[in-house]
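Protein of interest.
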Amino acid sequence: MTMTATSEPTINPRWNLGLWAAQIALALLYLLGVWMHLIVSPQQAVAMGAVWMSEAPLLLVRFIGVMELLGVIGLILPAATRIQPQLTVWAARGLLAIQALAIPFHAVRGEFEPLPFNAIYVALAVFVTWGRTRKVPILPR
């Protein structure tokens, strides 16, 4: 007689805590981007070193800010409410897409100062994507 166990594997709560920390850190980092792209004027951005913002169409800069804001909301709200929690993974993937565009954009322009920060954004977003799909997915209500 064979017995099949259908018990779920135990999950170390530290993984969940670590993933929440990564989600919050990534959201806070992107809130800085939201502030730069939605609130700061192009002239103020140039004074802070973001020259590209004065050279790009303002509508593009604001669009980037809106997409980052939606990503921040998507990182936290679906996971916290457990309503459509898979949207957290999609938000992390969307933020990865922003970086997939931002990194070559800055590199081509010779703006290498932001690239280490971009690498941090990528690492956190990859960790959240992996963790919330494979290691500790959040179950819907």
